[in-house]
């Protein structure tokens, strides 16, 4: 083995192109293409791990023409334009290389191959060995006893012997070889009629290009003789074009090419933005390497210094450790606090102690913390702080002055991203990894209550510390992105509202659901028998494979599409919906699937979710999930209960108030159309809504050019589809499919609509233009949604982004409006209706549980608040209802 120093030269452009074709379709949640970057990073990591290089350079092609274009203007002239999706990833690769703190080399007028050739010469002159990390045959001419090639994608290493074995010629003859054959990729002409085999034969016979051309006149084959003699100048031009320049004005100071360990605080944020989540923990600063002062506190008096520090800066970060991810079922195990970067304390309260361990007295700690947590002037900071508020409230500690939630800040800054947990936030914003839950508790499926106190302290204190540090980073980012007001005036006040709603829960008629379950079981059995009769035999209705055989082989129905893996028949809902027009069996199957889904998701599941202590159902409202700003709910998800079906109504009948109370439901009527009217300033839509007319009837009258009183139900339904379709960027294809009309007729309807509603047409166009120019759209209150794919060459990705650009300002504004109304209603309930609870928010509807005596007055107040929460150019209309269950109120 040689003791000479070795430098690795990475051919960046070659690998980016190869990675682009190898890793298709990869992108961030915001739509930024990252496949080529990911492939390049994998190659880079292979080099760093397998070779552990001491010296390395990443070599790039520079933008613009090179000296070869001056020599031959047609050089590379036949290359198609670079795919914009690929082009967008070159700067991302440069960012990654910079973040790895690796030397990059590029120079105007030179290609990467020339720079690698020059670096080869300079390195060898300084007694280095060189490894060319590439698969490019153009570099074969550089190989020698001191220069080798490593193609990491094929895991092949090449030297002079391997090149000679592969091509029949050594590296010293590669320039002449390429001069004869040319290169169609780069538009290098070569000699017409001379391919690789002929070129090898000629060079082996004559020894060089010069000798080949000198001996051309004596060649027996007339065509070969003619080509060589006629195109001699092309051969010499080609030789000049394929010869790599070894005299680029570069220096070679070995120290400049030393591989350094990357700074995690620089690298991990870049990896996080690219959403290379598997790599983040690998390169983030390991938790154990971060200098910290984490202490376990058993005596509350030990908190004096920290609380004094918190008082000085006006801020305290807090976190809880519990036994469950469900706040309403979690038992408090401990509390961690921080008010200074790198410093935090953990107060163990409910651990199952190991031999020799002690924990704090909960009463003493609570007595100490109650005035601290109740102090509204001391800002409280947390990560998903709604969870902590619920846990602490149930344990007997009320928290006031809640000021900042790092999860919500991260969400506002990047609403398209799926991960806003503390680990992801720490990696992106602090460049560090965190202790995993499994490390703290000693394995999977273990309770934090069983964690040894020493490990628990490090884990829990880190949560509070990282939350505090993330707050310091995210707060200025909100200001820079003009999100400060939305965060502090809307999202943070909503935390308290949602906390209270989750704790309120809703009553459930468990017996009613049990009766419904029996009915559905009977209905499903009957449908199953009908399906057997229609098929002519029994089969498994839940088996796509068996179903495919029945539908397409036995019944001979038209095959609409294959499964994703192209290995079988697709029998998904969209396929069955189309087939239902042809045969009764698919229609029955659709009904079977719908009933089965609702039975398992709600009728069977809801009773199991009733809290054993409160005897109520406690859903979780999620603030940091949807990119538009809408709330979602989980455990259970109440958003998907069908609205206009008999079964959906039966399920809603089982949501009930406690004795002596009623449910009041307040639902914004057509809020998205009202927002559209305000944003678009469309005269006709504004006029219809302001006068309280039936919008869909008026639209139908204009589309079909008939008086409003003559509009049929079918025409109104079609107009309604168009009205709402505009909000979602509906295409003529989809309108035709939904309305069962021709695509031409559908396009004509859309054209007529946009022709009559000129304000809406202008708004949609202006919105798309704004999105294309800025890369994002905003709601009325300033919420942003980033749309990186808005200018993509990928048609499907671009069209999806365009639909988001149209829909987000409308749906997002509607979401912001109902959030404002919830905050105001909550304040009103606290001050005026202490016995009333806000219990549900589903779509555009709020549901309250109130004593019968307060029903009318509450209804008036809620309606007044919701209709006047924001001033639009058209009135906000609220439908009110009440009853002994949600279905009646709705």
From TrEMBL:
Which SMART domains does the entry mention? 35EXOc, 53EXOc, HhH2, POLAc
Q: What is its EC number?
A: 2.7.7.7
Q: Which SUPFAM superfamilies does the UniProt record give?
A: 5' to 3' exonuclease, C-terminal subdomain, DNA/RNA polymerases, PIN domain-like, Ribonuclease H-like
| Catalysis performed (reactions) | DNA(n) + a 2'-deoxyribonucleoside 5'-triphosphate = DNA(n+1) + diphosphate
Gene3D superfamilies per the UniProt record, alphabetical? 3.30.70.370, 5' to 3' exonuclease, C-terminal subdomain, 5'-nuclease, Ribonuclease H-like superfamily/Ribonuclease H, Taq DNA Polymerase, Chain T, domain 4
Q: Which residues form the signal peptide?
A: none
UniProtKB keywords: DNA damage, DNA repair, DNA replication, DNA-binding, DNA-directed DNA polymerase, Exonuclease, Hydrolase, Nuclease, Nucleotidyltransferase, Transferase
Query: Where in the numbering of this chain does the 3'-5' exonuclease domain appear?
Result: 294-479
Q: Which GO terms describe its molecular function?
A: 3'-5' exonuclease activity; 5'-3' exonuclease activity; DNA binding; DNA-directed DNA polymerase activity
The residues covered by the 5'-3' exonuclease domain are 3-260
One biological process term in Gene Ontology = double-strand break repair
Q: What does this protein do?
A: In addition to polymerase activity, this DNA polymerase exhibits 3'-5' and 5'-3' exonuclease activity.
Which family is it part of? Belongs to the DNA polymerase type-A family.
Q: What protein name applies here?
A: DNA polymerase I
Q: Which organism is it from?
A: Dethiosulfatarculus sandiegensis
Gene designation:
polA
């Amino acid at each position: 083995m040689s003791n000479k120093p070795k430098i690795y030269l990475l051919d960046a452009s070659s690998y980016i192109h190869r990675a682009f074709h190898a890793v298709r379709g990869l992108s961030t949640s915001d739509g930024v293409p990252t496949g080529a970057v990911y492939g390049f990073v994998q190659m880079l990591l292979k080099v760093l791990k397998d070779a552990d290089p001491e010296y390395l350079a990443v070599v790039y092609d520079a933008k613009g023409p090179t000296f070869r274009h001056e020599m031959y203007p047609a050089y590379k002239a036949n290359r198609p334009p670079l795919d914009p999706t690929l082009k967008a990833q070159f700067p991302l690769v440069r960012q990654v290389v910079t973040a790895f703190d690796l030397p990059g080399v590029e120079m105007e007028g030179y290609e990467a191959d020339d720079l690698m050739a020059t670096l080869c010469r300079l390195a060898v002159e300084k007694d280095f060995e060189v490894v060319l990390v590439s698969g490019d045959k153009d570099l074969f001419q550089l190989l020698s006893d001191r220069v080798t090639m490593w193609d990491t994608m094929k895991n092949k290493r090449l030297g002079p012997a391997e090149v000679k074995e592969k091509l029949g010629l050594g590296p010293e003859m590669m320039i002449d070889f390429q001069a004869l054959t040319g290169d169609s990729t780069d538009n290098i002409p070569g000699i017409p009629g001379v391919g690789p085999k002929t070129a090898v034969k000629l060079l082996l016979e004559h020894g060089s290009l010069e000798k080949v051309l000198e001996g051309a006149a004596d060649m027996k084959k007339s065509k070969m003789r003619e080509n060589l003699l006629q195109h001699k100048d092309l051969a010499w031009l080609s030789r000049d074009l394929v010869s790599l320049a070894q005299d680029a004005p570069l220096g070679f100071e070995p120290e400049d090419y030393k591989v350094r360990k990357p700074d995690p605080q620089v690298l991990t944020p870049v990896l996080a933005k690219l959403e290379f989540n598997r790599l983040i923990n690998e390169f983030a600063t390991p938790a154990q390497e971060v200098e910290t002062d984490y202490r376990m506190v058993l005596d509350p008096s030990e908190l004096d210094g920290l609380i004094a520090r918190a008082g000085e800066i006006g801020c305290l970060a807090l976190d809880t450790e519990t036994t469950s991810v469900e706040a309403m079922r979690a038992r408090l195990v401990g509390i961690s606090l921080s008010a200074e970067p790198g410093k935090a304390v953990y107060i163990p309260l409910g651990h199952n102690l190991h031999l020799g361990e002690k924990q704090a007295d909960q009463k003493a700690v609570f007595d100490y913390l109650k005035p601290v947590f109740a102090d509204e002037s001391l800002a409280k900071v947390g990560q998903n702080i709604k969870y902590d508020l619920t846990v602490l409230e149930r344990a007997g500690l009320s928290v006031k002055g809640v000021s900042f939630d790092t999860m919500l800040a991260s969400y506002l800054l990047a609403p398209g991203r799926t991960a806003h947990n503390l680990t992801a936030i720490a990696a992106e914003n602090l460049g560090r990894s965190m202790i995993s839950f499994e490390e703290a508790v000693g394995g999977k499926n273990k309770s934090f209550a069983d964690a040894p106190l020493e490990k628990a302290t490090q884990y829990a204190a880190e949560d509070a510390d990282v939350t505090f540090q993330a707050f310091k980073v995210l707060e200025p980012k909100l200001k820079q992105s003009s999100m400060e007001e939305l965060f502090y005036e809307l999202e943070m006040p909503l935390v308290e509202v949602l906390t209270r709603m989750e704790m309120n829960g809703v009553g459930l008629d468990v017996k009613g659901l049990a009766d419904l379950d029996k009915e559905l079981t009977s209905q499903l059995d009957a449908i199953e028998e009908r399906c057997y009769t229609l098929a002519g035999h029994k089969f498994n209705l839940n088996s796509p494979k068996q179903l495919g055989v029945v539908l397409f082989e036995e019944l001979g129905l038209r095959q609409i599409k294959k499964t994703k893996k192209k290995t079988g028949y697709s029998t998904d809902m969209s396929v069955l919906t189309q087939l239902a027009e042809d045969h009764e069996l698919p229609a029955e199957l659709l009904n079977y699937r719908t009933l089965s889904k609702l039975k398992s998701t709600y009728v069977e599941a809801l009773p199991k979710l009733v809290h054993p202590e409160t005897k109520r159902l406690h859903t979780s409202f999620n603030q940091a999930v949807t990119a538009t700003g809408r709330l979602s709910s989980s455990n259970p998800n109440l958003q998907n209960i069908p609205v206009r079906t008999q079964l959906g109504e039966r399920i809603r009948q089982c949501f009930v108030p406690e004795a002596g109370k009623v449910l009041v439901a307040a639902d914004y009527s057509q809020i998205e159309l009202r927002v559209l009217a305000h944003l678009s300033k469309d005269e006709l839509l504004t006029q219809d809504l302001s006068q309280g007319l039936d919008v869909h009837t008026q639209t139908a009258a204009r589309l079909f050019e008939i008086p409003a009183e003559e509009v049929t139900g079918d025409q109104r339904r079609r107009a309604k589809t168009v009205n709402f379709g505009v909000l979602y960027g509906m295409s003529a294809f989809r309108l035709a499919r939904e309305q069962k009309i021709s695509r031409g007729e559908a396009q004509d309807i859309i054209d007529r609509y946009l022709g009559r509603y000129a304000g809406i047409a202008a708004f949609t166009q202006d919105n798309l233009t704004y999105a294309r120019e800025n890369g994002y759209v905003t709601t009325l209150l300033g919420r942003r949604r980033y749309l990186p794919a808005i200018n993509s060459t990928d048609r499907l990705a671009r069209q999806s982004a365009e639909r988001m650009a149209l829909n987000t300002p409308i749906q997002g504004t509607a979401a912001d409006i109902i959030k404002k109304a919830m905050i105001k209603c909550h304040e009103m309930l606290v001050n005026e209706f202490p016995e009333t609870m806000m219990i549900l928010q589903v779509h555009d509807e709020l549901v309250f549980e109130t004593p019968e005596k307060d029903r009318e007055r509450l209804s008036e107040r809620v309606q007044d608040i919701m209709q006047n929460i924001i001033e639009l150019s058209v009135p906000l209309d609220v439908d009110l209802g009440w009853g002994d269950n949600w279905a009646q109120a709705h």
